Amino acid sequence: MDDDGSVTTRRNFLTGCCVAMGAVAVGATAFPAISALRVASDLVFGKTEQEVDLSAIQPGEMKVVGLSLKRVTLIGTDDLVVPVMVLHRKPEWVRQMEEVKYGLKEPVEAVERYINPEWFVARAFCTHLGCTPNIIDESATPVNIVCPCHGGRFDTLGRVISGPPPSNLFLLPYRFVSENRINLFVSSPKDITATKVSDFQKA
Amino acid sequence: MRSVQEWFKERFPSIIELTKFHATEYPTPPNLNYSWAFGVLIMFFFAVQVITGIAAAIFYKPHAVVAFESIERFRRYVHWGWLLQSIHAVAPTFIFAAIYAHIGRGIYYGSYKAPREIVWFIGVFLLMVMMMESFMGYVLPWGQMSYWAGTVITGLASVLPVVGGTLVTWIRGDYLMSDATLSRFYSFHIALFPLAIIGGLIVLHIMALHDVGSNNPIGVQPRKENKVPFYPYYVVKDFYVVGLVFTFFLFIIFFYPNLFLEAENFQKANPSITPAEIKPEWYFLPFFAMLRSIPSKLLGAVVLWLSLWVFLFLPFIDRSPVKSNRYRPVKRWMDIVFFVNFAVLGYLGAHPPMGGYLPAARIATLVYFGYFALLFAVSLYEKKPEELIAYENDTSHIRLHAGSKNIVWFSILIIALGAINVRAFTFNFPTMDTIEKGRAVYEAKGRMCHDMLFMGEQALLSPEDRAFMLGMVPPDISLKAKSMDESGIRVFLSRFIGKAPEGSKMAVVFTPEEVDQLAAFLQYSSDPSLFLRGRIGPWAVLFMSVFTVFLYLLYKEVWRLKALGLYDY
Ligand code: HEM
Ligand code: FES
Q1: Which of B36, B38, B102 to mutate to test the pocket of ligand 1 (most atoms within 8 A of CB)?
Q2: Which ligand sits closest to the CA of A130?
Q3: CB contact (8 A) between residue A28 and residue B79
Q4: Does residue B214's CB lie within 6 angstroms of at least one atom of ligand 1?
Q5: Which ipTM was obtained for this model?
Q6: Region B420-445: what's the mean pLDDT?
Q7: How far is the CA of B240 from the centre of ligand 2 (A)?
Q8: Average pLDDT, stretch B201-218?
Q9: Which atom of ligand 2 is nearest to A163's Cα?
Q10: Are residues B375 and B490 in the same domain?
Q11: Quick one: DSSP state of residue B268?
Q12: Could you count the other beta carbons within 10 Å of the beta carbon of residue B338?
């Protein structure tokens, strides 16, 4: 390869052009294929409301309900289920939490985490890797909600105390329609990553 | 670059050796013409099928109840689904065109002869498995043609004595074509065939070829020092051909995506109604014509099998010491007749076996097989001409095949690409305004009876009411513009201008404007990607055209320098 430069100028220029256009062509081929992996446009995150009856949940009990986002596509229904935890807090848990001092990874005022202190409603979705934290550890002080997957620990308002979860459990919009019934309501993906009740109470 | 190569060389030398042996340094005859680019072209299209197929497989549901709908959903609701789906459906047309050209090249230049018989055998098997692959893919949308082609083709196995019936149900996984058949075809189509069988055979095909070296238009093997390395000489040449064909491919994809598809297949499979005319994709038509021309079930199937298997015997049938038709005047004409006859068979396959078509198909079938018999006889008498012996004695006379008619080729290329682009930029899609008016006409005059479920519209009357009033449930018309073809829809609707035609259960009347508007709306509803296609299509085609011109210039420049001896690899 004895390139004296002058004879190959034209060839080198053409090579450069072709390589550049080839790169564009490869990109243009990859783009639709990669883009197709995005959420398909019929998988809407529509407005959904669902009532939950609280009367059967005894103090100290947690119930995990599935909030179903109804979706109809050309090939049938494809509902998205968002698990929601409803925890009936015992009066002594509430008292205990005010008395005992403990560290929080992501401090948020307690009043920002409930509408009625007797009820804690949040997404049953551990902020570590998404398991459902459904174990209540009454031997701990204050009482803990524990994630079965990697032992993440939260207080009874879903705030991280210890373990791998990086942040508090997400809340999601709800309101009391009567003393014993709440109404869950979501209308966009943003709604299910609320962190304080004020995030959805204003709206 | 150098150092990266060194780094690999110390750690994974075989990959470097493999690349050199099979790609960059593969010694190639200096005189190959464009027909030697088809192999690489097929591989490019195969890669395109793998990429778009992986995307399609994510959204496709192999279930008889929803398979048809799942493809419509892929086209309508998945980002770029319309494009990926179109490409996957249309590319087989280009693949088979390229395969037939590739085989034609092999026949014409005697590439099947020693020492390339194994390359040829693998090639013939590739043809057969590509046919099966394409057939199974065709069944997946579960349209009318999918279903009936599936029934007919799987039924072919029933001609076998004794085991035939068992074999058919074994292939189908059920007593008739059903969901069970669909599911297994899906598995074979996306995994077994493309990855294990076709992918594997392609690798073997190339390995076998590279052990003995490529044939060339003269048919004499040049000595190594008279060959040129694959890179850069044939890389640039093959890329140019790939660019050219892909320009045309994109043009079809964006502007005539249904041109090669069977309209009937845009209707969902219905096991109780056989379409008026069953016909396969165009690339099966020649074989289809032969099958139909034989009035016996067993014999028809045998002829069909023989028409493919006979190629395996070609290296033994042809006894001539000469390969290339350049030095075989008789075989050249025989080949031309054979190729034309193949096209004629294709034409006959597209027409019902009645009247003059049937005897014509029988004659063409005889010509097809007669070719091989005649070739055997003729080849016994062929001798090696002096000129070839001279080439064999000194292969340095085998010259580069490039450089001369630069300007002529360039002008032709520019004119052809220019024409494609002018067509692309002047292509007319209906306007949104006409479409909206058409929608209003549908709401007012059609929705009473017709569903358009893919547009989210249900008929106003219930199916029971419609059945009671009309004696039938009128069809869903979301895809009618595809299943009847746009012009067909126009012809149909025009019959209702002024007054409804005699005997029609469809009691409506349209004005000529309404026909236009409805046709536009139905075209849109059968393919809502219309506007996006129209917007990006011209630019995609233009880009590919410019790219192709540059690939052409690069190819010519690289070969010019080589021919002048100014620069050599
Ligand atoms: C999936 C299908 C196929 C692929 C990807 C493929 C690929 C290739 C490639 C890359 C080459 C070298 C470049 C060239 O000469 O064009 C080649 C050569 C060859 N192929 Fe194929 N091929 C396929 C099918 C076939 C079929 C169906 C046949 C014959 C029935 C065939 C027969 C040959 C022969 C004889 C050669 C050597 C040509 C020569 O050196 O003159 N191939 N193939
Ligand atoms: S998922 Fe809950 S701790 Fe890991």
Answers
A1: B102
A2: 2
A3: no
A4: yes
A5: 0.91
A6: 94
A7: 55
A8: 97
A9: 3
A10: no
A11: B
A12: 20
Ligand 2 atom at minimum distance from A131 CA:
1
CATH number at residue B483: 1.10.760.10
Q: Is 50 exceeded by the pLDDT of residue A13?
A: yes
pLDDT-derived band at B498 (thresholds 50, 70, 90) equals confident
Question: Residue A1 and residue B540: Cβ atoms within 8 Å?
Answer: no
Task: Answer yes or no: do B441 and B351 share one domain.
Answer: no
Percent above pLDDT 70 for chain B = 99
B436 and B341 fall within a common domain: no
Q: Does residue B390 lie within any of the structural domains?
A: no
Each residue's pLDDT tens digit, B211-245: 999 999 999 999 999 999 999 999 999 999 999 99
* Tens-digit pLDDT profile for residues A55-96: 999 999 999 999 999 999 999 988 999 999 999 999 999 999
Query: Do B245 and B125 share a structural domain?
Result: yes
Tell me which residues of B are annotated as active site. Answer: 210, 214, 237-238, 281
pLDDT of residue A203: 54
Q: Is the pLDDT of residue B479 over 80?
A: yes
Residue A13: CB partners within 8 Å, gap ≥ 6?
none
Same domain as B206, residue B165 = yes
Alpha helices in B12-37 (DSSP H): 13-19
In CATH terms, is domain A48-199 a member of 2.30.30.40?
A: no
pLDDT at A141 over 90: no
Among candidates B254, B326, B217, which has minimal Cα distance to B540?
A: B254
Q: What is the pLDDT, as a whole number, of residue A177? A: 95
Looking at residue A1, its pLDDT comes to: 44
Compute the distance from residue B205 Cα to the ligand 1 centre, in Å. 7
Using an 8 Å Cβ cutoff, are B286 and B294 in contact? no
CB B13: neighbour CB atoms within 10 A? 10
User: In the predicted model, is pLDDT for residue B322 greater than 90?
Assistant: yes
Distance separating alpha carbons of residues B167 and B359, to the nearest angstrom: 32
**Position B505, amino acid:** K
Pocket of ligand 2 from Cβ distances under 6 Å: A 126, 128-131, 147, 149-150, 152, 163-165
- Does residue B414 belong to any structural domain of this protein? no
Q: Which two tokens stand for residue B366?
A: 């005889």
Is residue B539 less than 8 Å (CB to CB) from chain A? no
Residues B90 and B191 in one domain: yes
Under an 8 A CB cutoff, do B540 and A28 touch? yes
Single-letter amino acid, residue B257 = P
- State the average pLDDT over residues A34-63: 95
Q: Does B554 touch chain A (CB under 8 A)?
A: yes
Query: Looking at the partner chain, which of A8, A29, A73 has a beta carbon nearest the beta carbon of B73?
Result: A73
Distance from CA of A190 to the nearest CA of B (A): 22
- Range of the structural domain that residue B70 is part of: 4-272
Compute the nearest-CA separation of A5 from chain B (Å). Answer: 10
Does some domain include residue B536? no
Coil, helix or strand for A181? Answer: strand
Average confidence score pLDDT of chain B: 94
CB B312 within 8 A of CB B124: yes
| Tally of structural domains, chain B | 3
Q: Residue B315 belongs to what H/E stretch?
A: helix B297-317
Rounded to whole angstroms, the Cα distance separating B283 from B96 reads 6
From chain B, pick out residues whose CB is under 8 angstroms from the CB of A42: 73, 76-77
For residues B218 and B258, state if they share a domain: yes
Nearest neighbour of B557 by CB, restricted to A14, A33, A38: A14
Are residues B292 and B236 both part of a single domain? no
- Side chain identity at residue A81, one-letter code: V
As a whole number of angstroms, the distance between CA A122 and CA A144 comes to: 15
pLDDT per position as a tens digit, B97-146: 999 999 999 999 999 999 999 999 999 999 999 999 999 999 999 999 99
Which CATH number is B93's domain given? 1.20.810.10
Work out the average pLDDT over B56-68: 97
